Amino acid sequence: MTSKLLENEKLLYDEERVDFAVYKSLPTIHAAGTVPGLHTIKLMITDRRVIIQGAILGGVQVTEFDLWYQGQSPTHDCDVLEVASSGKGQTGGEYLRLVARAREHGPLRSDVAEMYLYLNDAKRLAQMLNEAMRPQPAEWR
Q1: Buried b / exposed e across 14-41, counting CB within 10 Å, b at 16+?
Q2: Helix (H) / strand (E) containing 47
Q3: Nearest-5° angle of CA 94, CA 133, CA 42?
Q4: DSSP letter assigned to residue 79
Q5: Cα–Cα distances in Å, from 52 out to 46, 68, 90, 114, 127?
Q6: Which of 82, 81, 89 lies closest to 117 in space, CA to CA?
Q7: pLDDT in tens, 46-91
Q8: What is the pLDDT of residues 95-135, one digit of tens each?
Q9: What is the reported pTM?
Q10: Whole-Å CA distances, 104 to 7, 45, 75, 110
């Protein structure tokens, strides 16, 4: 399961195995977990976006979410990441919470998508993403 990065896009973090994920965009709610050999969830963080991929049977990709940082999306209809935070679930596991806004969506999805990714580095990843989403000063552009 691979995702092609854009030219000059830098990979900052790569996690081959997210333990569990929940996706909510009313009226739809999905949940999935990593089961070796059956289903995997991969997380990649670049300097332009967050990529979440789901695959079955050792690599057959079934889903991909690209959550772009404000001002980084290549087209006008991309999902834009607005919030990155961390917390602890009821079972005590750490999660990374991502909230993105869709500029265009279908009937089974609202304009806001919320994802909870359960993994060990959640707090550090939320800090990394908030730093990456921060607008650069005008003199750096």
Answers
A1: ebeebebbbbbbeeeeeebebeeeeebb
A2: none
A3: 45
A4: E
A5: 11, 12, 23, 13, 18
A6: 89
A7: 999 999 999 888 778 888 889 999 988 888 888 999 999 999 988 7
A8: 999 999 987 666 777 889 999 999 989 999 999 999 988 87
A9: 0.86
A10: 25, 23, 11, 9
